[in-house]
Amino acid sequence: MATIHHEIVIEAGLDQVWDALRDFNAVHQRLAPGFVTDCRAEEGTRVVSFANGMVARERFVGLDEKIHRLSYAIAGGQLTHHNASAQLFAQGPQRTRFVWITDVLPHEMADFIGAMMAQGAVAMKRTLEVEARP
What we know:
Radius of gyration: 14 Å
Largest sheet: 7 strands, antiparallel
CATH topology: Alpha-D-Glucose-1,6-Bisphosphate, Chain A, domain 4
Number of domains: 1
Strand content: 35-45%
Order of helices and strands: EHHEEEEEEH
Helix content: 25-40%
Shape: globular
CATH superfamily: START domain
Number of strands: 7
Structural class: alpha+beta
Number of helices: 3
CATH class: Alpha Beta
CATH architecture: 2-Layer Sandwich
């Protein structure tokens, strides 16, 4: 199984970043607009449309308010396994470390998923830092 790990530092407070991350069905509006073009809520899942035309059915797995962690999984398509989590860590009053880890099979999909995560991380950083400006 391939593990993909991305970390970014966002110049915004933990509470603000957590509020956007935990809003599972508003990823296209609050977290990564432009990278995610649409999100439709279904029972226990969200159907996410990406700018590259890909569509994924992401199943909500869990949310831990205490440690600021959200997890989800994708089933179907070219993936036989996909589990991801995002966790936040305060790095100061207006700085948050965003840790995003995804396990994926088949291994051959790791480069593709990793590239998508890198693009998503850029969109999240841009969006959240603009929102944090006075």
